[in-house]
Amino acid sequence: MKQRWLLTAGLCAALLCGCGSSHSSAATEQMYYTGGSEGGYMASSSYDAKNAEEAEAAESTADAGSGAAEIAADPVLSQEKLVYTGDLTIQTLEYDKSLSALRAKVKELGGIVGWENESDSNYRWYDSDSAGTRSINMTLRIPTENFETFMNDAGGIGKVISRSTGVQNISRQYNDTTVQIEALEKQQERLLEMMDKAETIEDMIAVETRLTEVQSQLNSLKTYRQSMDTDVMYSTVTVSMQEVREYVHVNESFIERAWNSFVSGWKNFIWFLEDFFINVLYALPYILIIGGLIFTAIKKNWLRMPKFNFLKRRKKDVPEEEKES
User: Fold this and answer.
1) CA–CA distance, 70 with 74 (Å, rounded to integer)
2) What is the pLDDT averaged over residues 32-50?
3) Cβ atoms of residues 207 and 194 within 8 Å
4) SS3 labels along the chain
5) CB-CB neighbours of 207 under 10 Å
6) How far apart are CA 56 and CA 142, in angstroms?
7) Residue 285: phi, psi to the nearest 5?
8) C-alpha span between 154 and 166 (Å, rounded)
9) CA–CA separation, 318 vs 252, rounded Å?
10) CB–CB of 181/114 below 8 Å?
11) How many other CB atoms sit within 10 Å of the CB of residue 52?
12) What is the model's pTM?
């Protein structure tokens, strides 16, 4: 009887020891799964990839939900992010004056010139009668609060030929980027904590690799969000300004059109004569040299040299039969 009781007690002790070891193993696995992030779990023989992915997905969803809630509660982030763009085509009779007025207006409204390209079609600048024109293309960044003012005041710079404006709402992209940044920042904090708790070199390398990836993504997203902030704060305006000789009056009478046509034709005729005279003077040295050579050849009878005599048949060389006929 006593032996049976001892056997029963031994079996109970063995069962208790087995449960204790199983509980210890489960606790060890839980230690590796808790607090991990995407790709940030430490290597272990008891690592379960399926459970880790499920825990990570749940954690990412929780981070996104909390980030969206924070955005909705923040009055600054909840504001719509609008990007304004404009395009202007201007013609002017006084190019220098209009260009100075344009630069002064940009400076007055707190804007900057992002890019510009100026050209001059007057390739014969040395000719006082040459009628070339100048033009400039500029990309301006105007504070958004002064965007409408700049577009309305463009008429004071010159003749506005075309004007167009547009607006793009980037609130969704901005908020999504903010949520991703906040989630990555939390992952970065957890990875730094895991780095401090890592016990082996393999664990430190795994955590450091993932930490580098998270920091790279975080920097890229922050740069993208900063670019969007700049686009929201400063509107982009493209300006094309052209110099013209005279404005064309559309509502002209027949007499005015006839007179303007006569004046224009007379000017073109004068320009033609001037150009012809200039071209003659340009070719005058060649004309004098070639004319002098021809005059000398005729004077010296160079064209009657023997080598040219075969082109002529002298009368005395013609047979008698041909003379009689």
Assistant:
1) 6
2) 36
3) yes
4) CHHHHHHHHHHHHHHHHHHHHHHHHHHHHHHHHCCCCCCCCCCCCCCCHHHHHHHHHHHHHHHHHHHHHHHHHCCCCCCCCEEEEEEEEEEECCHHHHHHHHHHHHHHCCCEEEEEEEEECCCCCCCCCCCCCEEEEEEEEEEHHHHHHHHHHHHHCCEEEEEEEEEEECHHHHHHHHHHHHHHHHHHHHHHHHHHHCCCHHHHHHHHHHHHHHHHHHHHHHHHHHHHHHHHHEEEEEEEEEECCCCCCCCCCHHHHHHHHHHHHHHHHHHHHHHHHHHHHHHHHHHHHHHHHHHHHHHCCHHHCHHHHHHCCCHHHCCHHHHHC
5) 26
6) 44
7) -60, -40
8) 17
9) 79
10) no
11) 17
12) 0.54
- Mean pLDDT value of segment 2-17: 42
CB atoms closer than 10 angstroms to residue 87: 15
Q: CB burial class (10 A; 0-12, 13-18, 19+) of residue 103?
A: middle
- Residue positions counted in the chain: 325
Which tens digits make up the pLDDT trace of 241-279? Answer: 999 876 555 566 788 788 878 888 888 888 888 888 888
Q: Could you give the angle at the alpha carbon of 247 between the alpha carbons of 243 and 253, nearest 5°?
A: 165
* pLDDT, tens digit (0-9, with 9 covering 90-100), for 114-162: 999 998 877 665 555 556 788 999 999 999 999 999 999 988 899 999 9
User: Average pLDDT, stretch 161-170?
Assistant: 94
As given in the structure block, the two tokens for residue 253 are: 């009478």
pLDDT at 267: 84
SS (H, E, C) 93-154: CCHHHHHHHHHHHHHHCCCEEEEEEEEECCCCCCCCCCCCCEEEEEEEEEEHHHHHHHHHHH
- State both tokens at 115: 């890019």
Token pair 């379960």 in the structure block, residue: 48
